[in-house]
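Now for a concrete sample entry.
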Amino acid sequence: MPRKKRRRLSSCDLQRTSSHLLPLRSGFQRGYGGEYGLESSGDQTTAAKPGKKVWQPKNSFDDKMASQLDKTNKSLGEPNDTSSAPAHPLASSTQHVQTTSSPNEPAKAESPPPPAKAASPPPPSSRPTPPLPSKEQTKAAAPPEPSTPPPAVAPKPPAKTPPPKPPGPPPSQAPASPGKPISQDEKTVEEGNRFSADLRAKGLEAISTADSNLTRRDGEAFGAYHSYGQEKVEAFTEYINYTLQSDADLSGVLPIDPVSGDLFKVIADGVLLCKLLNKTQPGIVFEKAINLKIKSVHHKVENQNLAINSARAIGCNVINIGAQDLIDGRPHLVLGLLWQIIKILLLKRVSLKEHPELVLLLKPGEDLATLLKLPKEELLVRWVNFHLVNAGCEKRLSNFSSDVKDSTIYIYLMSRICPEHCDLSPLQEKDERRRAQKVLDNAAKIGCKTTFVKANDIVAGNKDLNFAFTALLFNEHPALYVDDTSNQVEVATLLEDDNAECTREERVFQNWMNSLGIDAQVHRLLEDCKTAEPLLQVMEKLNPTVVNWKMVNKNPRVQIKTIENCNYMVECAKALGLHTVNIGGKDIHDGNAKLVLGLVWQLMRHDTMSLLERLGGSSKLSDSDLVQWANDRVQAHFNSSSRKVSSLSDPSIATSLFLLQLCESVTPGLVDWDIVTEGSTDEDREHNAKYVLSVARKMGCGIFLLWEDVVEVKPKMLMTFLGSVMAVQRQKAAPS
């Protein structure tokens, strides 16, 4: 069998061995003495007996390592001051490295080093030098010498103590003297150091170029800081000025100066955030519940709680964002929350319900169900590529950064969606920034004038701002023309509006799942849960130890692997204590609406009950326990004028009066009774229901139910309301 080829000795090997050199001396003597005509016996190395065959290593990795270690040991064994060796391990490992001759080759002559100086004696604390072979022993095992004797070599001078250096990256390898031959390993180290220095310089140059407009803000922890782009501050400020310019309650603060950074000061009272959230979903924040006249910090906290919990209710990730963070204007948290809200606003109209003509984006072999489960970002990418194909452009959009830097995609897209005002003439401009400016000028001509996206943002490949610009073009000019009587359009409209009750419940559940900060964002609950990955991530958020990801098939491409993931998800649900009778992995994979919604509801209930247990409950609570607690709180606060409910299905809950009294009993003075109605008509009940949800969110309740759930008395959703109010009450009662 041919001998396996070993790898060559590298500078990394020398660096590792030099740091452990002294402890490895005895091991070196025991294992590699045979190269020099020695034989090892235990911890002693003695000369080989006459006539006895001694093991001779061949040209292998072990042979090279032994030779290098031997030469380094000899150098360290000289009577030099070992305390003056270089501090850097790489320098100490390469200082004594020399080219080693193979046992079968004659030794090469070395160039004489500079004259030697008197060597100082070794310190008493230095480790004793191991015994070295005598001249006779070395001569017996050495190859024949060449005919020309080598010049005499003077002893090496002692190492000088280098001056102390400030902490920093390891220095580059110093060049060897002209008279000393450079070994292959020294060349490798020198080339590696030169490559690392060049790579580091290029990296620093790239970082400085990409982040030239970054602003740094120190964090709370020592040495921690957060950075944010000034272009995002300006862009978000301009978008807010444009979106809320007609709001009378904000006339005193708008427009905001995009350069001065006043955005973080205006955000502090919470009014602007609440107004912006109402643009995403009208009625998510009850206008009369906002504290417009700020008289104390308490009013700011209430407004920020209302904004944070309303953002959470529409699916924003608000983990680690508190009211005080927004009041203090922490830039990275404020900008992160603003971008989530703005993104929802931009994608609000990218749907089959708003534009049934999106069925034209179907690829061959796809059906409407495939189009419905696509994220809105993917729909936007398909829309751009659809027009690029029809415009004869060879490029395709796959991202909103590098693909749009040269503005070519924008030029072809705009010439397609609005040919009467836009053409391909900007392609003749060679300068990318001027070309991008022409794109923005054309956008202003077709009614897409934007001040929050600038030419530099396009050229720099700012992903978020280029995404916002593309969404703006779609909202103003989708340019998808199809016959209104088309069967596909009719079917798409029916699919979007079919089973409105189930869709509303799905929306509540998927907003709750997304608010947990899971990686697998949920856009269509039944479709996205077919892989079981979103449900597994939710379970991990609720209990970090319940999911073993080694049991999960990553990116399954066959159905059997996906069903295995669903089966494992059901096992994890059992471990959480959920009821999984008659639920199988195949049901989840097939998108059984009743079973999937029931499972997600149990997860949502488990989240609420676990929070209550952590806040002081020793045992699990039932729905009747929550009702009893609510009745006791209301009776204790309002005495004889209080109301009582028999269960979560009590019809009197539809007026929201009992829920308002419950909130008032936990936080006195929170409810403005002047705007509360008797709830005798449908309009009054809707009015009270919207108000009570905003009141609860001002308290700090993370609730996801809609006002329709209150008016229609949905027991499941009302259970989450009572549980959230109870959690706030226990948090206030807990010792600080």
